[in-house]
Amino acid sequence: MTQELTTELTTSEVTVRQAVEERVQQPRSVERLINGQFVMDGAGVKINRVLTQNLQRRLDPFLMLDAFGSDKPGDYIAGFPEHPHRGFETISYMITGSMRHRDSAGNEGLITDGGVQWMTAGRGVAHSEMPEQTDGMMEGFQLWLNLPAKDKMSAPWYRDIPNTEIPRFTTGAGVTVQVIAGASHGVQGAVQRAGTEPLYLDVALPANASFEQLLPPGHNAFVYVFRGQVLIDDKLVPVGRMAILANTPQADGVRIVAAQDSRLIMLAGRPLNEPIAQYGPFVMNTQAEVFQAVDDFRAGRFAA
């Protein structure tokens, strides 16, 4: 069945006039809630590391999720000077603020309010991410998404996606959904990945509104609430918490009800079920491949 939906129209690239209404028959429950760990990263950026290394196997293919948000320049102004990556993808989503990207493959771009930067490190790239503001709020997320073994040595790739190019729709209940990756209610996201099939949504719910999202069986999935609080299968998920969704065999999706005006990101992906060997910014399948990555970086063999 199709349902006419109200839309936020910005450019023809994101116009959505119809969306397919999704009905979840058996919702997933919340397996557990995660607090995250406050860490300093880069040259001294204050971060809440929500998805840590000990959750990589449980939430395969996702490797890390960092949430950052502060209106104090000292918490973010030092940024992330040049550093290397190999073997995975980084997805930076800027809720508010401006960050400049430069890398050794010759790419440069500015992520601003509501924009996304999707980078495939592949066989290796060195990049920097530096604030392009000296005051005000900076808030957003960085996600690390693993690459299948066959793609880990692929050519580096980069794309800036401004907010106006992110497909979106608003349901009859007033829930606004931005589809960064994958598909929701028939609306295709800005990015698709065949190997990991990631779903990445930004969902804003008015108080008491509900939202349903179908999820493929076996895909690992989680929700991070960054405004308000929501109920997932009657489990309260407060602001600043990640809810890992149970992989119940018969469950076909997730049902969310807002306890108050709320906003969250929802992620799901097809697990790779491959070995994970990580040393800092290098994520491969064996220790030998990690050692090779270190040698290649030191020898200047990353993208130049």
Main sheet makeup: 7 strands, antiparallel
What is the overall number of helices?
1
Report the mean per-residue pLDDT as an integer: 92
* Poorly predicted tracts of residues: 1-13
- Total strands: the figure is 28
Strand order in the sheet with the most strands: 3-24-21-26-19-16-15
Q: Specify the helix fraction band.
A: under 10%
What's the end-to-end separation, in Å?
A: 50 Å
Structural class: mainly beta
What's the shape? globular
Order of helices and strands: EEEEEEEEEEEEEEEEEEEEEEEEEEEEH
Give the quaternary arrangement of the chains. single chain
Keywords summarizing the entry:
seven-stranded antiparallel beta sheet; Pirin family protein; mainly beta; single chain; 4% helix; disordered N terminus; 1 helix
Walkthrough of the structure:
By secondary structure, this protein is mainly β. The protein is built from one helix and 28 strands. The strands form seven sheets. Strands 3-24-21-26-19-16-15 form a seven-stranded antiparallel sheet, with no helix packed on it. It has a seven-stranded antiparallel sheet with strand order 4-5-6-13-8-11-14, with no helix packed on it. The chain is globular and about 55 Å long.
